[in-house]
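Suppose you are handed a protein chain with no further information: no name, no annotation, nothing but its sequence. What can you learn? This example shows the usual starting point.
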Amino acid sequence: MGSRHCSYKGPPLAPHSRPSEATVKRLAAEAEMQQKMWDLFVPEGGIRFGDRRFWVLLSIVLGLHAANMYKDSRKPRDLGLPEGAVRRLPDGGLLLADGSIAKNAEAAPAAQHTLHRVREAGEDDTALGSALRKMKDAV
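A reasonable first move is to predict its three-dimensional structure. Written in structure tokens, the prediction is:
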């Protein structure tokens, strides 16, 4: 990256209106940190297949996918669902494993949906979830 120069074209500044040397150094350090963060998070050249950032991003995506799949496999199934159904929807319908939606008229009024169910305090809580809940309750 080439050097950038800022040239002031107005009248000369009075010595009392100029920033101090400490302020100039602090601003320069802040600008350098901002440039490092920009270069890290916004790769202007893009992310290429052999680039280290590509492999890091791919690892993060695959890790999150594996964690979600593991979490879904450990989730207890609703015993009142018929064969091939994944979950009960708010309108009483059933979400099937193939992605289609079926109406289940006889089970709709008696069964509660399992989509976007609000968990009670302490129910299936992780360490981070309980810490966040305590912080929210304290405020």
